Amino acid sequence: MRDLVDPADDPEVDDGHRRGRILRALATSMVEKGYQATTIADIARAGRVSKTIVYAHFRDKEQCLLELYTRSTDQVLETVRRAQDEARRAGLPWRERLRSVIGAYLAALAAGPEVAWAALVEVQAAGRTALALRRKVIDRYVDLICSFAEELATEHPDEVRPVPRQLVLAAVGGINELILTRVERNEAERLPDDVDAATATVVGLLERR
Predict the structure, then answer these.
(1) Is 72 part of a structural domain of the chain?
(2) Nearest to 72, CA basis, from 38, 34, 119, 128
(3) In a domain, 117, yes or no
(4) Contact 89, 103 (CB under 8 A)
(5) Which of 37, 105, 141, 182 has a 20 to 30 Å separation from 203 between CA atoms?
(6) Could you report the per-residue pLDDT of 104-134, keeping only the tens digit for each?
(7) Are 4 and 76 in contact (CB under 8 A)?
(8) CA 49 – CA 37 distance, rounded (Å)
(9) For residues 157 and 92, is the Cβ–Cβ distance under 8 A?
């Protein structure tokens, strides 16, 4: 979970290590109690800081969750982009490139099960602002897949078909549900086991028949 939420390398963040600890404490507390029941006192206790320190970094619990969600999404997307670049440089067949990228995505979530729980479950209980941010995050994933799909269609026009954004959104929703099932069963560490099913979903969407 540390790599997904630690803002210590961000020069704009004062006291980054402590701030990252607070974010991780929120994720841990939500796994135990849920977003609604988690208090600033719970976060302070889990993060081994005072409530004053928590409030010095975050206006309230909602702001803490929004940063947790945003930073973890940024890290996951960066991991996916690196995997995409590496697969391209390796010259893998397009289906293997997809599998490599999707595998990197699932592995990143599996490495931070508490954050996966926060991003997939608790964010939906955190009000309109959090839901609006969730929509933006899903759009970022859709944009990434659309861009990748366009690249593959250009490189392999006889094998890969152009697909409309709405179909990509439907595929992202299906994969999200697959991931959510694992997370709700406390099986986030097993997400890499689903790489074949998730890859088949996207291949089926893109494959020209």
Answers:
(1) yes
(2) 119
(3) yes
(4) no
(5) 182
(6) 999 999 998 888 888 888 888 888 898 899 9
(7) yes
(8) 19
(9) no
pTM, rounded to two decimals? 0.86
Sign of CA dihedral 68, 73, 79, 85: negative
Report the alpha-carbon distance of residue 7 to residue 72 in Å, rounded: 10
pLDDT at 2: 46
How many whole angstroms separate alpha carbon 64 and alpha carbon 206? 38
Q: Has residue 55 been placed in a domain?
A: no
Name residues whose C-beta falls within 8 Å of residue 182's C-beta, 6 or more positions apart in sequence.
188, 190, 191, 194
Exposed/middle/buried for residue 159 (C-beta within 10 Å: 0-12, 13-18, 19+) = middle
**Cα Rg for the chain, rounded, in angstroms?**
18
What pLDDT, in 10s, does the model give residues 57-75?
999 999 999 999 999 999 9
What are 116's two structure tokens?
Answer: 């996966």
Compute, in degrees rounded to 10, the torsion defined by CA atoms 3, 16, 54, 47. Answer: 50
| Band (14; pLDDT cuts 50, 70, 90) | low
Q: Which of 50, 53, 62 is nearest to 26 (CA)?
A: 62
- Counting the structural domains of the chain, the total is 1
Q: What residues have CB less than 8 Å from 195, skipping those under 6 apart?
A: 99, 102, 103, 106
